[in-house]
UniProtKB/TrEMBL annotation:
Keywords from the named record: Antibiotic resistance, Cell membrane, Membrane, Transmembrane, Transmembrane helix, Transport
InterPro entries: EmrB-like, MFS, MFS_dom, MFS_trans_sf, Sugar_transporter_CS
Record organism: Streptomyces orinoci
Name of the protein this chain belongs to: MFS transporter
Main localization of the protein described in the UniProt heading: membrane
Length: 502
């Protein structure tokens, strides 16, 4: 066995603090701007038609460039990629906070996405190669999984606090101290292992095909939300995505040094993780969106109160990840944590289909949020660990990038898909109840809530499918077990990131 499995880095636990801090910054940035968007739109005179670009510019750059970022971290060194990503993200955040018009803000968001695509996969792959002992790995990924799962909720809380008590610009400026502390700590504590870089040349055609394909896919779902699923532009984008991504797969199968070695996704366990996490992200991103609107528009919660409403869910996510997932990971096979976790989250989500115009937060919303939090926390932790299961160390960055890609693309799809479902259900309800309506305003709220409930039912179904995929596809044994994956594509790798303790 090569040196990756010998003496562990004595500073790995300190390094985990800074890696987790960087992950928190990237994840919360996906939601922190959502609550601040109405204020930013008003201050910079952004039209209703263009405001979505503040969100979409980030998602397109991040989702489209993740595989490229993961491969860069393998070629250039994970520590170099991590620190560069942090400093670039801080600079982009400074530009966003100082924006004087809409295009400047949107450009800064795209730039955040570019550096986030470099930062996110290098963070996860650093963990994969620094923590190789089973119990330590479980603890490290417990922390990382909790942050990855809870970061979105933290973003909602901070977004509310900054928008209400300071200024929308602070939703950008807050990233600067995060990034500086994480970069300084990473430089001091992370030591790149000799020989861990991939010396192969960068696959430029693969980069172009993958990036254009993923951008077309994400943008297609964004256009579907605004222009409709049958619009010519929407269909054209989906067709382009299918052609580009098919060409990418065909090219990667033949090229000598591929951007995405197909062995990374051919392994059934990793494929199961990517698929189930992608579906779970579709459900979770959509739910965040509906609950924020329900609490702020229907129940007239302030931005701060809306953010705080998610706090119990975050607490339960952290509990599920560190107290349930991490403790059981060395005793229970990953699928018996992931499948029940996603199923429990689906139950919590289905409890939220009971919302109405005057639903009590304590009895009608809180139980569902807490059950969802425990379920997602329990499922996230083994999923993050399994993402690099059995992969060659020189492919750890791109394997990590696939997790982030499935989450980002899933989130973009979830927002567009579930929003379209909710809008259709809202319109249908309003038309069918118009004749008996006593108040147009009341009918508007009733229709809106009906639309949210229909979309949440769909989200619950998608989470159930996620649990089923995890159960069927993931067949690896637990961290201390003697069983190994049935599909051992990487078993003969010279240099791999282990999940099993032998």
């Amino acid at each position: 066995m090569p040196d990756i499995n010998t003496a562990p880095d004595p500073r790995r636990w300190k390094a985990l603090i800074f890696i987790a801090l960087a992950q928190l910054m990237v994840v919360l940035d996906a939601t922190i701007v959502n609550i601040a968007l109405p204020s930013a739109q008003k201050a910079l005179h952004i039209s209703d038609g263009n405001r979505q670009w503040v969100i979409t510019a980030y998602a397109l750059a991040f989702g489209g460039l993740l595989l490229f970022g993961g491969r860069i971290s393998d070629l250039w060194g994970r520590k170099n990629a991590f620190v560069t990503g942090l400093l670039g993200f801080a600079a982009a955040s400074a530009i966003g906070g100082a924006a004087v018009n809409g295009p400047m803000l949107m450009g800064a968001r795209a730039l955040q996405g570019v550096f986030g695509a470099l930062l996110a996969p290098s963070a996860l792959s650093l963990l994969a190669v620094m923590f190789t002992e089973a119990k330590e790995r479980a603890k490290a990924f417990g922390v990382f999984g909790a942050i990855a799962g809870a970061g979105g909720g933290v973003g909602l809380i901070l977004g509310g606090l900054f928008t209400e008590y300071l200024n929308w610009r602070w939703t950008f400026f807050v990233n600067i101290p995060f990034a500086i502390v994480a970069a300084t700590g990473a430089i001091a504590t992370i030591k790149e292992r000799a020989g861990s870089r991939n010396s192969a040349r960068l696959d430029v055609p693969g980069v172009v095909l993958a990036t254009l394909g993923l951008v077309s896919l994400v943008y297609g779902f964004t256009r579907a939300e605004s222009n409709g699923w049958t619009a010519g532009g929407t269909i054209g984008l989906f067709a382009a995505a299918a052609v580009l991504l098919s060409a990418f797969v065909a090219f990667e199968a033949r090229v000598k040094a591929p951007l995405l070695p197909l062995r990374v996704v051919a392994n059934r366990n990793r494929a199961g993780v990517y698929a189930s996490l992608g579906l779970a992200s579709i459900a979770m991103f959509g739910l965040f969106l509906f609950l924020v609107y329900y609490l702020q528009v229907v129940r007239a919660y302030s931005p701060v109160k809306t953010g705080l409403a998610f706090l119990p869910m975050i607490a339960m996510m952290i509990t599920g990840s560190t107290q349930i997932g991490a403790r059981l990971m060395t005793r229970v096979a990953p699928r018996w944590l992931m499948a029940p976790g996603f199923l429990l989250a689906a139950v919590g989500m289905l409890l939220l289909t009971r919302i109405d115009l005057d639903t009590s937060y304590t009895t009608g919303i809180l139980p569902g949020l807490m059950i969802m939090g425990v379920g997602m926390g329990t499922a996230f932790m083994p999923a993050m660990s399994m993402a690099t299961h059995g992969v060659q160390a020189r492919d750890a960055g791109v394997a990590s990038a696939m997790v982030n890609t499935s989450q980002q693309v899933g989130g973009a799809i979830g927002t567009a898909l579930l929003n379209t479902i909710a809008a259709s259900a809202t319109t249908a309800y309003a038309k069918s109840h118009l004749a008996h309506a006593t108040s147009p305003k009341l009918l508007g709220f009733q229709s809106m809530v009906h639309g949210y409930k229909v979309a949440i039912w769909w989200a619950g179904g998608i989470l159930t499918l996620s649990a089923l995929l995890a159960l069927v596809l993931i067949n690896v044994g637990h961290d201390n077990g003697s069983s190994v994956a049935a599909s051992g594509e990487d078993a003969d790798a010279e240099d791999f990131v282990p999940v099993m303790a032998h």
